[in-house]
Design a protein that fits this description.
two-stranded antiparallel sheet, 69 residues, 3-stranded antiparallel β-sheet, flat, alpha+beta, single chain
């Protein structure tokens, strides 16, 4: 998919992939920022934490945008 997100400096190709992966029986999820979060004991735990991670990132962005310099 060719496009540009708000936070991207230029347009580019973004590939869709499975966000949750299993390594040695532990589950991780990857982020747009290129980090691998985990480990989690179950896939359900990892998927639940994706939502928590997104909420934390959105709150951090809102906080940064609301600061007056």
């Amino acid at each position: 998919m060719f496009g540009q997100r708000r936070v991207d400096p230029t347009a580019g190709t973004h590939y869709r992939s499975e966000r949750v992966s299993a390594v040695n029986g532990q589950y991780f999820f990857s982020t747009r920022e290129g980090t691998l979060e985990g480990p989690y004991f179950t896939r359900v735990d990892a998927e639940r934490e994706i939502g928590s991670y997104i909420r934390r990132m959105m709150q951090a962005n809102q906080l940064a945008a609301s600061r007056v310099y």
